[in-house]
Sequence to fold (215 residues):
Amino acid sequence: MIKGVIFDLDGVLVSTDEMHYQAWKRLADQLGIFGFTRKDNERQRGVSRMASLEIVLEKTDRVYTEEEKVKLAEKKNDYYKELLQKLDDGAVLKGAKETLAKLREMGVLIGVGSVSKNTPMILEKTGLLPYIDKVSCGLDITKSKPDPEVFLVAAKKLGLPAEECLVVEDAAAGIQAAKAAGMKSLAVGPYYEKLGATYQAPGIYAVNDWKEMLG
Ligand code: BG6
Ligand code: MG
Fold:
């Protein structure tokens, strides 16, 4: 029996993909890396900030030190946070608030499990915070998805064993992390059919029967 649902944030509850892309693109342009495209950005979905930077740097022969890489990632995050200033509840994905409210009404605990260190700001600016019981994010963990840490921390905060949690994800790394945590998963988003999740739907708006998944 599932007693808690742990939602990934970016691409599941909110639409931030374009802002991540714009911020990485601005950095890439500055570095003289002109081959960075939306296709490369797709691979950054669910991946940590430093791993995402490596996807940008694949496009150049220049070698950066670890220290330089940290500075570059910080710069991208400054650009991203500039864009986040404009974020409001218009960025909340279709059906997200209704689903969170419905699940709570059914007595299900709601968690967020995201590797983003900007999670608190995003939840605050989009008005999602009141719908959520516990947040596990990039600030709570040392290992990013596909490591299960972020979901295990979420389950612990919710006070539930892994097998009583269901993960909702839009990225391959996230579905792998759910599996590694011993949790069932629901894949949503543009690649939902390809992620190997327990359940699939194009978006949370399309899930009619949560009861079936909750067992
Ligand atoms: C994930 C995004 O949720 O968070 C990734 O899908 C991003 O694209 C990662 O790299 C880390 O986010 P942040 O906000 O800490 O740079
Ligand atoms: Mg995601």
